[in-house]
# Entry
Amino acid sequence: MESKVDNYQDQIYHFKGLWDVPSICGLKIVKKAENTVVIATDLFEDNPGTSITEWNVKLAKQICDENEIDYTDLIYIEHTPDKKTKLSFNHESFFKVKFDVTSDKFENPQWQELAKNEVDKLITE
Amino acid sequence: MKFQLVFPKWRKLEGQTTFNLPPHGAIVFAATIPQDIEVEFIDENLEEMRFDDDVDFVGISMLLTTQIKRGWAIADEYRKRGKKVIFGGISTMLHAEETMEHADSVFLGEAEGHMEQVFKDFKNGELKKVYNHMNDLPPIEIVGPARRELYNRDLYYHKGVQMVDLFHASRGCKYSCYPCAVSYLGGRQFRPRPIDKAIEELESIDNNRLFIVDNSLAQDTQWEKDLFKAMIPLKKKWCSHTIEDKPEVLDLAAQAGAWYVYQAVFDTSDYIKERVKRYHDYGIGVEGTILLGLDNQTEDDIKRLIDFLLEIDLDLAEFTVLAPFPHTKAYNDLVKQNRIFNKNWDDYNAGQVVYHPKHMSAERLQELYQYAWDTFYKDESQEEKMFKLLKKVVSREVEDGTFKKRRQDLSKSSFGKNVIHKIA
# Structure
């Protein structure tokens, strides 16, 4: 099935990364009745600071806190867009990240790769 | 006040020709230290540590991930003796949190403009645990010249032949390559040094052969051309990472003394083949740098790549396996996929496989890495190929009157140690 979704970011999100370096990522938040899908997109060369993967425990919590997202309803996805090269490691990828969540922090990220269609399903259905 | 600046040793790759080049980052850093401080430099790759020297403050300059555990051990020794230790350099930034456990202070970022404060804090007993200047890059105009007078010069000779001196003409890199940590290190923006400053430093180097260590000179054509144009009268001979292969750039580079350049060879395309030929057309040698173990490589791809290298007439080739250094996309990808099985930083030397490759076992990739070295240098050894390149530069130096004979007093030593001559 071909994907019909071509937009995984609605805004540029600014955050302070490791060692307080100003950093950015793409952000899409889809709130649904049963859960909230957050997609953080790596911006590669356009990001002057820390990557979304490296900062995910802090970034995911910060996005939840600022957008009043219940931690238990969160489906958090890291998106690396296609860099338009023939090298396979530069192709588009999506990873769902599960965190161990306590009241004051996210920790122990665990990644699970998702197909594009699975992501589309999560944000459209 | 005396400051001892240490460059820790690391385990060299087995089976490869080892050359000890004079370290660069440490002496660039040394140029930022206030002038009233006496600085003593130890390159542990060539010198014994002197933990009991009468020094007030110790700096450890770290370049490589494979160097950091030794750096930590050195710091522990000094601290046992009551000395304060500060760490800096690229791999300090890559491993800052772990390094803090072995340090009185960690400096993050580029040192220019900040060392007065650090030394003032030290003198006042107020050294900070972290000097975070990751987000505070200095104006490029104030960089350098490096303090090469700190080297024990005689150590950087092999059988009387002086090793190249390292030099940098720019900082930062606009590219974002998969295995590279430049985005984390804060160097996303290309920052070329003013030409007059670069030339002033080049003129001051008492060595006709250089390695220009910039990530890539191919980032601003006009600056690159201006730099090469200004270098022509110096008659230096140099190797470097990538330069642009436009005819006008190559022409100026050749006139400026381009000896050989590094060229990443990542596939068997005509693009690579033609690029290597273009360098050769201008008399510039090419050392291929070949990274093995990327996710797009199968065993057959690697074997085909090695056959290709033999076809395109490379002057030298250097093989590495992917080392997923922290703060790179390569590291992030492999962590996400739970594929890193070895976190001993000593082994992150780009010669040892520390992760599960996508299309083969780690053991098989290790074998193919060895196969690559053996196959490429089967008919002509690395030393023989290097000697050929050396002959080329010597003949150019003889032509333009810059050739210096090898030092007879050091002809029986290699990097400070006596060598026994073998009779072939």
Remarks:
- Chain A has a mean pLDDT of 91.
- Strands of chain A lie at 11-16, 22-31, 36-41, 74-80, 93-101, 106-114.
- DSSP finds two helices and six strands in chain A.
- The interface with chain B takes residues 18-22, 44-45, 47-51, 53-54, 78, 80, 86-90, 95, 111, 113 of chain A (CB under 8 Å).
